[in-house]
Amino acid sequence: MSSTPHDPFYSSPFGPFYRRHTPYMVQPEYRIYEMNKRLQSRTEDSDNLWWDAFATEFFEDDATLTLSFCLEDGPKRYTIGRTLIPRYFSTVFEGGVTDLYYILKHSKESYHNSSITVDCDQCAMVTQHGKPMFTKVCTEGRLILEFTFDDLMRIKTWHFTIRQYRELVPRSILAMHAQDPQVLDQLSKNITRMGLTNFTLNYLRLCVILEPMQELMSRHKTYNLSPRDCLKTCLFQKWQRMVAPPAEPTRQPTTKRRKRKNSTSSTSNSSAGNTSNSTGSKKKTTAANLSLSSQVPQGLGAIPNCSLNPGRDGDLCHSTAVTPSGQFKEKH
Fold first, then answer.
1. For residues 87 and 183, is the Cβ–Cβ distance under 8 A?
2. Does residue 143 have a pLDDT over 70?
3. I need a surface site. Which of 173, 189, 190, 245 has the fewest CB within 10 A?
């Protein structure tokens, strides 16, 4: 069977520069497959730089990782940010794990404008333990992933809800220690809690303290301030955000449109308009003939002046009188 250009492993006969980029958005699960391969390439010499490069390749800069499970003392939920994700994966291997990979079955994909969501109700996190004894742990649960819809297709949110787990011990090891009750008693004990090692659980508890301190650490690294000054500036900025009123949305000015009168209504009302104009002109002439001397005492001309600012006695309106000499005098 010959390979086609739609095959992600297709090699163009025109050379590597003609080959198109692998369309990750067609199969988001392929990124999990690549992540499993990258975890398998880990060595004992892998340092913090290797784990930072691993997180940069598969997680966004503002990514979050959430784990939900139930222990003996009740349900737990831990959420860590991007800066703490590399250390989380490294603690899995520090607890005696030699291999880690994820299996997704019957996952559902939903495409959005800028992201792709993968919902897998039958996800299994498989870890192979070399110490304290050879054990295979299958942690089952629901995994919800949100990828960015771009060429890199990195994970933005990771939420794994653990339902159950199983620890599998090979029969050959049981047969070897069948006559040793102490070893059998040790083999019967669990080496994990809900599929997580003690190293990982302790780190998640520590992240509850470290996560709020990320802003202080980044500020100390950027501005080289003392811890006390970093705390003061962070608290002051948070106080400003709490006190500052929310920004009001800009309103667009509304334009009023004049309604045009119909020609029929104007012609029908022309006769009524003529009569009203004649009566209005008579009223204007009579009002103009009225002298100000009949309204105020002789020698004073009153000019009403209303203002929103109250006067000395609290009145909103007051009048200004003109004396015969041409001077203004206020009357309340």
1. no
2. yes
3. 245
